[in-house]
Write a structure and sequence with these properties.
Length: about 250
């Protein structure tokens, strides 16, 4: 089985890069974090459908998932393949995990959000994922840990090693150089990076980002344009587990 995980999709350049990348490639299962896919912040029904139609099986998200209100009703539909973090407070729309069958294999995808350096009232992701795994049978478990702190991502990976098949971090938009297999046989990377323009600052236009840091003012950010790339992780599960980070520049539609 060949599995693809792609980092945060940023705006139209990111969506275009992902659609182009998937057009001539064959994966058994593809997961994409798209919490920034609509205009650089949030996700809409239409942007989600564009990615799903391109061959994405499950869309994960994070702290920007509520930015566009039309996504709220969409993610609350039965069996919607768009996830929000499972450790958000009860009463929120949508689900933090999904179990899908592929070639007779029950694949569970879990979306979590870290708590370090993210000022939100969230449940403990460690205990939440333990409860999900305990109560929902699956053959293959894949976790997107959307978090700021590398320590929190690595700690969660060690916590799940031997139980989950893959743990991949998202959120920082910077691909890390630590793709590997942990001692318990789990594929891991601290951050999948991003899909979008490489001409700006983590997918956003350079000038607005520069002014923010220079002046301290809350300048409205714009999505960067120009050369694009896709970042992520390929995991091949055959007789042996193969893990390879992915960074492909100048993907064009």
């Amino acid at each position: 089985m060949k599995i693809l995980l792609l980092g945060d999709v940023v705006g139209k350049p990111g969506r275009t890069a992902v659609v182009s990348y998937l057009k001539n490639r064959d994966y058994d299962f593809a997961i994409v974090n798209a919490e920034n896919a609509a205009g650089g912040f949030g996700l809409t029904r239409n942007t989600a459908i564009q990615l799903l139609d391109a061959g994405v099986n499950v869309i994960t998200s994070g702290n920007h998932i509520w930015h566009h209100t039309d996504v709220l009703e969409y993610i609350d539909e039965d069996n919607c393949p768009v996830l929000r973090p499972a450790n958000y407070p009860p009463g929120n729309p949508g689900s933090g995990f999904i179990v899908m069958k592929h070639q007779g294999i029950r694949i569970m995808v879990v979306n979590l959000q870290g708590r370090l350096f993210i000022p939100m009232a969230l449940d403990c992701p460690f205990r939440v994922v333990d409860n999900i795994i305990r109560n929902n049978p699956a053959d293959l478990i894949i976790v997107d840990m959307h978090a700021e702190a590398t320590s929190e991502k690595q700690a969660l990976a060690r916590h799940l090693d031997g139980r989950a098949a893959i743990v991949a971090g998202t959120h920082t938009h910077v691909l890390t150089a630590d793709a590997r297999v942990l001692p318990g046989g789990m594929a891991y990377i601290t951050d999948l990076g991003m899909c979008g323009s490489m001409s700006g600052v983590i997918g956003m236009a350079t000038e607005e980002a520069r002014i923010r840091f220079l002046t301290g003012r809350n300048v409205r950010l714009q999505v960067a344009e120009g050369n694009t790339y896709v970042n992520g992780l390929e995991v091949v599960m055959n007789s042996e587990l193969k893990v390879e980070s992915l960074s492909l520049i100048n993907e064009k539609a």
